[in-house]
Design a protein that fits this description.
By secondary structure, this protein is α/β, with parallel strands linked by helices. The protein has two domains: about 240 residues, Spore Coat Polysaccharide Biosynthesis Protein SpsA, Chain A (Alpha-Beta Complex); about 70 residues. Helices cover about 50% and strands about 15% of the residues. It has ten helices and nine strands. The longest helix has about 35 residues. The protein is elongated and about 90 Å long. The two termini are about 25 Å apart.
Length: about 325
Amino acid sequence: MRRVDIVIPAYNEAASLPALVHRVFAVMAPLPYRVRVLVVNDGSDDDSAIVLAALTAEDSRVGVIHLSRNFGHQAALTAGLDAADADAVVMLDADLQKPPEVIPRFLAAWENGAEVVHGVRNPSRVESLFKRLTSRAFYRLLNKLSDVPLVNDAPDFRLLDAKVVRAARNLREQDRLLRGLVAWAGFRQVSIPYDEAPREHGQTKYSLMRMAALGLAGVLSFSRLPLRLATLAGFTVSMLAFAYGAYVGVMHGFYKAPIPGWTSLAILVSALCGAQMMFLGLIGEYLGQVLMETKARPLYLIRDMIIPPLQAAGSTGSGHNDAQ
């Protein structure tokens, strides 16, 4: 019987976790797989630890990885992938917006030969206009600048074959964008549309600033185009300055025309200084990424964990299983 791990990163999702875990097992029960749910507690400061202790006591198919602090969504997903040991791994957020009922469709595509199955959001009225616009801008910007195209509107809700998980484990970049790493890895990929549900509890952990930081990490990790654009901008400004210098020389030398323009000169110098600072900042972002990579710190630290053996989906599981 083939094995499936469901990896769920969670940060302050105590209110959502019981319903989500029960829905996952209800969906998987009719299917012929040995199933395990691995919840990564990403340094939550609510009652998540208490809720997870109750879930592991209730069902021995539930495993928990408690990180030592909040390392972020991408690091928590990585911790779950590192702990997974199955023929296929499904990544599922804890916010109840990604429906577990789509997982059987993921598994059907996997059984038909797909090695990566992306969940792609349908345009949803439950999202605000601002959220739709920023999400669209996020994917369009990344696909314009990145050397690795991403699937539009495909968050970290996907199935990975075991060979893809093994490949992802070898990619230990500090500023992580897992959807980009999966796209870079290749393999046979398909997309499954789904309708995203409204958030029932709490608030999204991805603010505009965090989305911008994630997008910047994706651009810096997968493209040198911004550096090339900076070089092109510098060359263009130099050519324009040369052309303007030639124009001034001709006008003053041959026609004795006065050369006014203190105001325009001040504006031009200010604009060029601003552009220089921006490009220095861009170079600094790349150097900062290099610095973080050379430090080679671990992506996360585990405080403790409970990893149960994989069991058949139909078994209810009882009691407590410790394996660290």
